[in-house]
């Protein structure tokens, strides 16, 4: 049996997940040049928000009703956390040396993890997440799980919506203006604080959706799930060109595919048996990142960064 | 302004430090009169990875200590538990070991859960002469030295365990796979940790020796969530069983994705996977999966019934089924040793050394079976049991001992 199509699909699904989370890193970086290391945790709160909604729904509620409610709950919680982080942790530090908000982000990340760990009931180990009651689907030799179906529908939809919003709407254009030059944008009458909050909110919305997708795909959510996912998503954002929303999605897909290919095939190359497999997937992903950054320091779709120095 | 706040902070800190010192001196005065307090340290992962089984150890010890206090097992001595969290990270384990050693009231330590963590702690306890009993470490090196296959040599005389080694567990699993399940093609995956990789290696060695074929191997990272690529490889390899060396955290997701990918083969693992959390998370996918675990089923021993009942009644968190009983027995071994050394509440100056010797000579019936140690510090209880998930529960399917020669 040829496994290449299945492995490509596996990589694609994983990559879509990375891409959804990466949007949050890239939006925030694009507008305030801050690497929001707490974003992985915002993604985690999205998963737990959705789980909470599900637990409050009466037993036996059809997933067709529960899923939209869970999405709403996840998105709401993640967005609230993202906005709260912006308002109370980062805004007071705007204008402070760049290291201050960075350290704050790391602190916030730990605080959020511990908060969920301590106060969410039974969150000390993985909590079971409800599953979609259909699938798996067969498509030739391909096998697609219900959680992956959700991802493959939702991720492109969200991306298209975001692209239309940023390019087409007044707010979107105002955000671009703020990203290009905050001082001038303010002089032109743009409320830059609101634009920055909007960027955080969009990141939160995507993180919330990604949190639900994560729960559906892996069947459980855990208080520390944001760390590894966040790290990979951040890598995806850098790979695609941090600050560029299309880059985040592309970076996610490339990273997911690279990990899948590395896991599946590197061990088959003679002499490389020891360097292949799941345990080495991240290593190869980072080798790819280094190669890309050597040849294109701004990332795959990155923009010039000279005037940011 | 800045100057003044600095002064305030400094004075607050000084006051705090003084208060702490005051507390310390009052404590030691209190213990002079009346009951002596002996602390039993616990080191295990209490949060995050492996915490379900880690908490089982903590509260297994807690119940042993409560029982000892209730029954006044050692007259004049009140036992206390001091549980430290190592998060399954060797560096944390070493730090905890250092802090337990420096607490003079600690006369014995239970833990850790992970073999990899144990290697970082043994030296610290050995230097201090403090006894350490692990309810769960299975790496043979810990008691029989680096060259345990050729020449056994005990590296640390303060280290004991109530769990059997992977040498037996891996062999027992291989034997069961080949002879009872009649599986011939196996895919072997491990998590690259001391425990997981060691178990996988011993399984592979014994399985191939029996005539089976390992059709593929791979390694995962602890904390991994996505095994889609790996399970596609497993399915494609035509394996009829997946052997996993590692903990429940990864394998519960691995088995789920394995079954979802359409590979209808069981996953077989070691005692690190023998946890109710595994079934809870994996759901129906866990059905038919197997583990080997140390000892005979806790529920079949009459002495264990009280233990299980107490654990449930107190609503302690964590999974007692995995190591709870062994932790209880390990703690009891230390309590009994303290009973031999501490008379009338008087702790001799070389109490720690004497307790090591007393533990070496342990000989009693615990909740997991008979407790005594051989010359390496290994348990003499070499019973192993294979459990299988049936209707959402771990059911014992075969108990026995493994004789490496056969």
TrEMBL record, chain A:
Membrane topology: Multi-pass membrane protein
Keyword 4Fe-4S: no
Keywords from the named record: Amino-acid transport, Cell inner membrane, Cell membrane, Membrane, Transmembrane, Transmembrane helix, Transport
Keyword Cell membrane: yes
Xref: InterPro entries: ABC_transp_permease, BCAA_transport_permease
Subcellular location: Cell membrane
Ranges that cross the membrane: 12-32, 63-84, 96-120, 149-166, 196-216, 236-258, 279-295
Family under the similarity heading: Belongs to the binding-protein-dependent transport system permease family. LivHM subfamily.
Protein name, as recorded: Branched-chain amino acid ABC transporter permease
